[in-house]
């Protein structure tokens, strides 16, 4: 059986391949990868993972990264130039109907600091523990070709404070409104 392609070849405003709506829909539906047949006694679900992706903010054009490319627990997540550094790559790991956003350098997950649920709580990286504060839903915004990344616990969007936030500004969670700083392009290659 042919599986949908994960990456589209359509061009974004930065001229790099972006994750297609069909690709994310397939990932969400769990049909992206054919999983090997399991014995009837196996009950552990297999996680489905994306290829390494950059999370580029629509408003600022910069990518998320742990500050300084750090690997420590509770390192603040900031925006930085979209280059080839491994710290600016994330794997979306589907767990149930949600996703962990796992940094490829630190292998830690994005989460509001201290499991915060208030608007403007800073986003940090933390041990991936299958906790609702580390779980995100993806909502495709067809008119922009971008995604809202909504935290399961807080129901707030991953965001930059404003669309004019400077390089190294901390990522936060914010109400999911129409501001472009609340949307991300999921891209497979640096611009």
Strand-helix topology:
Elements: E1 7-11, E2 17-19, H1 21-29, E3 48-49, E4 54-57, E5 63-66, E6 77-80, E7 90-95, E8 98-103, E9 109-112, E10 123-126, E11 136-141, E12 146-151, E13 157-159, E14 172-174, E15 184-187
Antiparallel strand pairs: 1-2, 3-7, 4-15, 5-6, 7-8, 9-10, 11-12, 13-14
Distance between the amino and carboxyl termini: 33 Å
Strand content: 25-35%
Shape: globular
Structure class? mainly beta
Arrangement of strands in the largest sheet:
3-7-8
Characterize the main sheet: 3 strands, antiparallel
CATH fold topology? Trefoil (Acidic Fibroblast Growth Factor, subunit A)
Average pLDDT number: 80
CATH architecture, by name, is: Trefoil
Order of helices and strands: EEHEEEEEEEEEEEEE
Number of domains: 1
> How many whole angstroms does the radius of gyration measure?
16 Å
Descriptive report:
The structure is a single chain. This protein is mainly β and 191 residues long. The chain has a single domain (7-34, 47-187), classed as Trefoil (Trefoil (Acidic Fibroblast Growth Factor, subunit A)), CATH 2.80.10. Helix content is 5%, strand content 34%. The strands form 7 sheets. The chain has a 3-stranded antiparallel beta sheet, with no helix packed on it. The radius of gyration is 16 Å and the shape is globular.
């Amino acid at each position: 059986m042919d599986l949908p392609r994960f990456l589209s070849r359509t061009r974004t405003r930065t001229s790099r391949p972006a994750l297609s709506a069909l690709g994310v829909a397939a990932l969400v539906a769990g049909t992206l990868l054919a999983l090997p047949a399991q014995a009837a006694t196996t009950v552990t679900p297999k996680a489905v993972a994306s290829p390494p992706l950059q999370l580029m903010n629509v408003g600022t054009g910069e990518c998320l990264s742990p500050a300084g490319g750090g690997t420590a627990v509770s390192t603040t997540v900031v925006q930085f130039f979209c280059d080839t550094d491994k710290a600016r790559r994330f794997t979306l790991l589907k767990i149930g109907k949600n996703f962990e956003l796992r940094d490829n350098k630190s292998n830690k997950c994005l989460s509001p600091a201290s499991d915060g649920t208030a608007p403007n709580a800073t986003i940090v990286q933390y041990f991936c523990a299958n906790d609702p504060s580390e779980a995100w839903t993806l909502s495709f915004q067809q008119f922009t070709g971008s995604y809202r990344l909504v935290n399961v616990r807080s129901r707030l969007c991953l965001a930059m404070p404003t669309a004019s936030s400077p390089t190294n500004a901390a990522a936060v969670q914010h109400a999911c409104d129409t501001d472009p700083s609340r949307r991300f392009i999921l891209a497979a290659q640096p611009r």
